[in-house]
Amino acid sequence: MEKTVYSYPLHPDCPDLRRLADNPAEALLRAEADIVAAENTAEADRYRRLEDLEEAQQDGRGVTRRTFVAGAAATATALATAQFVTTSASFAATKTGTLIHVFLYGGLDGLSLIAPNDDPVLNRARPDLLLPDDSLAVGRGFKLTSAFQPLEPWLRAGQLGFIPGVADPRLSRSHFQAADACNLGGLPGETGGRGWLDSLVDTLGKGTAFRSVGVGSTLPRSLVGNNGAISLNSVGSLRLAGDDRYREATEKAIRGLFTGINHPVEESVHAGLGALATARKISAEPYRAAEGVEYRGVGFAFQQLAQLIKGGANVRVATVGMGGYDTHENQGTRDGGQLYRRLNELAGAMAAFFTDLGDRAADVTIMVSSEFGRRVASNSGGTDHGHGGVVTILSGRKLAGSLLGTWNGLDTLDSGDVPEYNNMFNVYGSVAQGRFGLTNAQIDKIFPRMKYAPMKLYA
């Protein structure tokens, strides 16, 4: 038996037309209009703040930090904003550690990651995508894809867990709209275009310039806001523009220009120069991972974070993005399937990262999420956009179990989708609360348009 739980706009690539209109053409038109409106709103939020900050940070002589900061294009843009303000803490290990949010773009098929054993609904709906017998055993009658074999030691140690049926009523099947809401912690109009991790940084208080880091060529929406996260492709890419022969003299000149000007940008510039010096020091020698550790693929992003954490940069929150999860075909549950390969790459990277950190891993939590799940039924060897997904947690702390949260089965679907059993932002909040020891009231401020309901995730 199925029932429609929510009514929201859908992505035209994968529509459930009954949700929008009786006429298919009108339904597609409405879906496209909603997508365009969401894109316009998000872009306006993103660039309006950048322009306002650019104007505010001029020192009267027409000089902004954009004229002297370089590296990757996204790093230059980030350094041109207020990212180095309120950075008074020293470079040292944090008392409450680091939270890393890994976002899988495209919509992960959660039922190809974990699934209930011998489920009659799955046997009928996706006989070609059932997890095979070599899958790993997970609590409460679930099994885990063998693609996650690299993380089996942490599964056995009680530090790897999964939350099924994760969604929010405000999430549509549009990649753009759903990913935006997941990274903001709600709709743009509810959050003011500010990322949920940036709001979390407010709650954590002051820190170093590296307290908020996005690894990649662009700053993710989850870090956009008041605290000016650093975006970098590599630690060594955070550097001043120009000839290396004149870099020391250039830095000295910049420091002189922005000293004694009685302007808020002065603190930002000096902190920024300090951060550049720290990055230069950390990356002065080729990075040497722990013995036996090899980073591949998306693991390169984790290597940058390992370099910062082991170098004492005091990273509080960080992000890693990984694409390739929009698996409409050739999804596969074994080596050779594109989803299997992506999941195996991710698991290998996370395992390498925790191994490389050694004892420092006790202070780190990784949370992996995606914009939505996929439909229960397979379609030509793949799956279409759906609703309830899976959140993965790899924690230095022991978890309350390997299968976490509420799960009421697949007997009643949400129009062919996995239902929402666990609200996405309650999951986000509970992961952050357990990592940083925050109160319910503090989490409420991060997600202001919903009443936070904590979940039991940690032992």
UniProtKB/TrEMBL annotation:
Entry coiled-coil feature ranges: none
Pfam families: DUF1501
Transmembrane segments: none
Natural source organism: Micromonospora zingiberis
Protein name from the UniProt record: DUF1501 domain-containing protein
PANTHER family the record matches: BLL7424 PROTEIN, DUF1501 DOMAIN-CONTAINING PROTEIN
